[in-house]
Amino acid sequence: xxxxxxxxxxxxxxxxxxxxxxxxxxxxxFSQAARAHGALLAxxxxxxxxxxxxxxxxxEAGALFTExxxxxxxxxxxxxxxxxxxxxxxxxxxxxxxx
Length: 99
Hints:
Elements: H1 2-21, H2 27-35, H3 38-43, H4 46-62, H5 74-94
């Protein structure tokens, strides 16, 4: 059940990420939703949580900017979040490693 829930939460995160990329979801709403995916984060190695939280912190800080700037690129963060989601999916698909 936990693996299925983690997979479901990853699907939700990817759906939210599409909305974020299309500017149909705010940075804050995306970040809040992503942080709530406890089963997904628990199913991944700890480093994945560290990286995601760092990206979300940058995304929330970027909400202070109204357009692309030298210190913030919404598209670059969306791309990094997509890469994170792709790698997280590969880890979930591979299943648990040897004990």
